[in-house]
Amino acid sequence: DSGVTQTPKHLITATGQRVTLRCSPRSGDLSVYWYQQSLDQGLQFLIQYYNGEERAKGNILERFSAQQFPDLHSELNLSSLELGDSALYFCASSSGSGGMTDTQYFGPGTRLTVL
Amino acid sequence: AQKVTQAQTEISVVEKEDVTLDCVYETRDTTYYLFWYKQPPSGELVFLIRRNSFDEQNEISGRYSWNFQKSTSSFNFTITASQVVDSAVYFCALSADNNDMRFGAGTRLTVKP
After folding, report:
1. Are the Cβ atoms of B35 and A108 closer than 8 angstroms?
2. Is the peptide bond before A8 cis (omega within 30 degrees of 0)?
């Protein structure tokens, strides 16, 4: 158990809908990272927050957004969902200075299925 | 641009065999970090090792060992005396700046009893 928690574990929704994925980092970690794992794209970095501020941005679609709250938990919002958004979404956290080179500890993931 | 290549898509071994998972990376940066993660059938990603580009010493942790060779841009992972519980997908990853982390496509290891 990495100490990173993600809810929900599974999510099934329809095309065009909007969902919110939640992540709580390990105690004391200020950085939160979001990744998408799909069969065709593999593991892709989406976005990183450090102590409430966006720090790095990867291949995140404009339909997706994220934020990190004062209590350091983070939410990933996915809107206008398409079939191709079906994937496993991971959150990770780290205790370093907020760089991508810090060791990241991953949560169990949220499996999103868009029907 | 950063790139990680794990050429072995799937490997199957019999328990107690040694197995090496290959990882080749590309980056123009002189300072970078390499990682290995394990994804067992349960789905979570488990951190195994982080190595920076200035530390070329090989590392051993129990049955696991890592061979980092800058000359060939490789960071290979060996499991000695494999066990059924080692069955998983293993990912190599590279981060060379503070804007990205690139994962390889992964190698699925199956250890048969």
Report:
1. no
2. yes
The residues, ordered by sequence, that sit 6+ positions from B56 with a Cβ below 8 Å of its Cβ are: B68, B69, B70
Predicted local distance difference test score (pLDDT) of residue B17: 98
Using pLDDT thresholds of 50, 70 and 90, give the confidence band for residue A100.
confident
Cβ <8 Å between A106 and B47: yes
Question: Tokens for A106?
Answer: 């991953």
SS (H, E, C) A42-90: EEEEEEEEECCEEEEECCCCCCEEEEECCCCCEEEEECCCCHHHCEEEE
CA end-to-end span of chain A: 31
Token reading at A14: 């329809």
Task: Tell me, yes or no, if B25 comes closer than 8 A to chain A by beta carbon.
Answer: no
Decide: B49 and B33 in contact? Cβ < 8 Å.
Answer: no
Q: Does B100 touch chain A (CB under 8 A)?
A: yes
Query: How close is the nearest chain B Cα to the Cα of A81, in Å?
Result: 23
Summarize pLDDT for B93-103 with one digit per residue, the tens: 999 877 889 99
